[in-house]
């Protein structure tokens, strides 16, 4: 059927029907997430919260996972929940209402004798009958009335920074700063912008600020004044084969997972230390330089290169959050060796010492088992298509 043969009204009716069905499915998902949270179900898979479980097992972004958890909590407003179940209210609208039912705001409402049933009815009516922007304003007006003087400003609550990594390893940066924090950042960046203005510079203002931010990081890393993470000074890492380094062909892998060209790695090596690490056929580092006996820092470097982060199923904690765990505890005769080591974040290191188990397979893949002997699999089985 050609597009012109289908009446416009039919298409729009179909769109409206699908949107309503999506709203109903979003409501069902939010309820399931809330039930899982209340029953502490994520603990079964060694996760601390539903937010972390959704990120690790369902591949949701951090903001989307957090919003889904908050929406589940917001369904304590019965009228709004019923409208969401019926497909009349979207998950985005529920997310707006969720701002009003945080524990702190519920406590303030109770102290002031606010009738939540009335608030629920107003939110639901606006969500069903008026544009999305009107609901945003109504919720904000309620929050302002709930605390007309406003809380004593906490700068940490106004600060956020999100780094979104793209396929080529580049980053998109999005964030917010309070007034004082923003002033500090602008002062630091402007110092570099004004100090680096060569004749004929055709960079835009945005490009100069980007270069200034990278220069700030370079200065901090080279000064040696940054906090030590897991016994290792923060540094830029590029992993590359010796032949590729010599010839400038091939690629190199950065410490946070970005892949760069061998030529770029050669450029980095001109102004950095080069450490020799020889890998065996199974991808495990064998020779870590001049030391005959593996020192702690060498063993850690080897584990970081091999594992790339926490090996517990569903966890994406980076290497600098992790401990080097003995698969067979040293007190039970386990050797301090790479073969007997695994990188685990603090939470999952604790879990493994309380019944969970991780094991590296011959193909290099890590598997995780619960205390009852069942295996944790990702993606979660519930994501499989229904026959």
From TrEMBL:
Region called Disordered, residue ranges: 144-163
Q: Classify the source by domain of life.
A: Bacteria
Looking at the record, the residues that make up the HNH nuclease domain are 298-350
Ranges of Acidic residues compositional bias?
Answer: 145-155
Pfam families xref list: DUF222, HNH
InterPro entries assigned: DUF222 (IPR003870), HNH (IPR002711), HNH_nuc (IPR003615)
Enumerate the GO terms in the molecular function aspect: endonuclease activity; nucleic acid binding; zinc ion binding
Q: What name does this protein carry?
A: HNH nuclease domain-containing protein
Q: What is the lineage of its organism?
A: Bacteria, Bacillati, Actinomycetota, Actinomycetes, Geodermatophilales
